[in-house]
Specification:
de novo design (two linked rop proteins), Mucin-associated surface protein, 129 residues, 0% strand
Length: 129
């Protein structure tokens, strides 16, 4: 079984990949400054949540990042090529976070049947005392 530190490394590496892709020096036609700032802020939030092992929240934030990217691409703030690279990184992070966000069900113990005495075989012939 992997320790908590080993399970966090792939998640953080993937989140950092998204951040690096956003932070690169790109011409304004590739990625607008406002879009880059906003997307980077979302990536930092995902990274913080993943680092604190709040994988469900990280996935929810990743969904917001996804919507943000789609909106920025539709508005022409992120080029199609740059958007595809960012999308690939988002997909990588999602594939790493997904299994971690699904809680493992805790088995519930099944009560064992309580043995009962057959009626009428006691000395009192079914009567107490």
């Amino acid at each position: 079984m992997m320790g908590p530190r080993r399970t966090r490394i792939p998640v953080l590496a993937a989140v950092i990949t998204v951040g690096v892709m956003l932070a690169g020096c790109a011409p304004t036609t590739d990625l607008s400054r406002d879009a880059a700032t906003s997307l980077q802020s979302s990536v930092r939030l995902v990274a913080e949540q993943a680092a604190s092992r709040d994988y469900s929240a990280a996935l929810a934030s990743l969904d917001s990042l996804q919507s943000q990217l789609e909106g920025d691409m539709a508005a022409g703030l992120v080029s199609r090529d740059r958007g595809a690279r960012i999308q690939a990184a988002i997909d990588l992070v999602r594939s790493d976070l997904g299994p971690k966000a699904t809680p493992t069900p805790t088995p519930t113990p099944t009560p064992s049947p309580t043995p009962t005495k057959p009626k009428g075989r006691d000395k009192g012939h079914g009567k107490d005392g």
